[in-house]
Structure formats: structure tokens, C-alpha cells
Amino acid sequence: MAETEDTNEYVGASANQVLFHAITSGNVDLLQEVLQGGKASGGKKPDLEARNALGDTPVLASLRAGQLDILAVLLDEEVDVDEAETKHDGDRPLHLAVRLEDDEQREWTVSQLLEAGSDPRLTNNDGFKPVDILTAGEQNEKVRRLLRDAEAISGFNKADVVDEDEESDEGPPSDED
């Protein structure tokens, strides 16, 4: 992708190509510009569900590239945080997050993905949930707890939860009646 000096546009590149270039190069400024449909992407906004040649979505690509600053920007957008890659093992963002080498980055990334709505119960093509591939060890106990707690919360059906603030005329009378 050639960048012109005069207009700062990526000549001949689609918005999605510029998006994936920004992700893999870790260029937060370029990512923000392309997300806004700026000059670098020819005034067009990218498809945040697009896939690169590896079958990765923008979220997966940012994790594979280890670009957590890029991931943080993407999570502020409406992106699917559960979409699996399509060309290899079917890993989802949480699967890649638990494989991060740095303990603090792993914990932060898992926490952010869960906060963004990622479902820890989803499996990859081998039938493994993220918690299943998390290595043993004291350094992973906090991440393991985050995943287990999120699994438990995800297992609740909202219809099974009683809203105590909601008043109803049905049911037995209380002592206050």
C-alpha cells in the first residue's frame, strides 16, 4: 500500500485493507482515521466483520499481532468479540487471549473481552473452551477465576432471575398487606 506524500491516502487500498494494515502495524492513529472514514481509507468506513487472508476478524488480527492498544480501540466499536477464525483451529478471541505470554497482558485482555460480552463457554474446533487451554500455574489463577465466574454468569437465564424491585399483583400476599 503506497502512501502518497500530498494527501496521506493509501492509493488503491480498500478501507478494509487499510484497517488490517493499521492493525498489524499497530498504528492507532491510522486505525482511528479509517474507523472514521477519513482520507486514508478514501472516505469510506471499513467493515468491522471483514476477514483477512488468515480468516481473522479485526479483533482476532489484533490479538495475533499482539497489538493490545489496537484491541482497546476496536473494543470501543461495535465488534463481534466471539467470532471464530475460519481457516485453522476455530479459535475465538478469548482462546488467543489466554495464550498471551505476559501475565498482566493476559489478565487485562481476558477481562476486557469478557467486559465486551465475550462468551467463555464457546469452544474452538477441537472442542476446547478458553479455560481448558489455560496453562496450569499460580500466575493463571486470576484469569481462570475470571473465566469461571463469567461462565457461571453466562449460564443464568434472565427469566430465572427474580427482579426484587418489580412489584406484582400475583402471588401470595405478604405480611405487609
From TrEMBL:
Repeat recorded as keyword: yes
Disordered: annotated segments: 156-177
Stretches with biased composition (Acidic residues): 162-177
Ranges for the ANK repeats: 89-125
The UniProt record lists the keyword Electron transport: no
SUPFAM superfamilies: Ankyrin repeat
Record-linked PANTHER family: ANKYRIN REPEAT CONTAINING, ANKYRIN REPEAT DOMAIN-CONTAINING PROTEIN 16
Name of the protein described by the UniProt record: Uncharacterized protein
